[in-house]
Amino acid sequence: MTFVKSRTHSGSKRRISLPDIAPLAGVLLLFVSFFLLGHFHNPTDEVVASEHLPSSSTWHCKLADYHQVVISLTAKNQLAFSVTSPAIQTAAIKAVALQHHVSLTSTQLVELAKIPLLRINVESLPYYLQQPVSRRNSPSQLNKMSLLDEKELVECIGKAREFANTSTHGPMRIAVRIDSEAKMSAVNHLTALLEGQGPNRVDLVTQLAQMQR
Asked: What is the pTM of this model?
């Protein structure tokens, strides 16, 4: 299995004097407002924030568009599952829930299609989806539910790849978002777990290191 680095953002640092920045104050204000709205309106979209990813100085070229299963591993050894195709993600989670005899109402299925990722056990889905969006991922609510375990993670990966192969989406790649503070033993364990799913490539998501000049 080959690990391929992929980056999340890039940038370079440059010193700017006060006179340089003054004429751009209005533009900078609009930029900051856009950044806050675009990146922090829903902090639960990623359980491993981009700034917590390992750094890399390697650039890469994206050769083709394809959907990915994205597996997250936090510093506390918590897992999360998502797919870059919302339709495949919803179908995979629903199928795994049915395998565990978890039935969802029509209203809950609508809410299921809106969640950015799965970080809880499917048995907890009915309770999770009936909570207000603003409270679902609060520590007090998550403490009432079981987190996603390895068995259901593997099942979700299998279903996602199955749905991708039977649709027009083509092969499903796998990417991992690993907190840079995660224990190496947990990383090795996740690697072995993914190797058991038979992929010949896994993308490691990193943040591009800031370049000094």
From this structure: 0.74
